[in-house]
Amino acid sequence: MSVPEHESPAVESYVRLQVLGMHLRAHGFTIHHVAGGLVVRNMTSSARSRCGASGVSGDTITCRPREEDEGRYWYFTSWQQPIAEAERITDALVMIKGYLGAPA
Question: Which SS3 state, helix, strand or coil, does residue 104 take?
Answer without folding.
Answer: coil
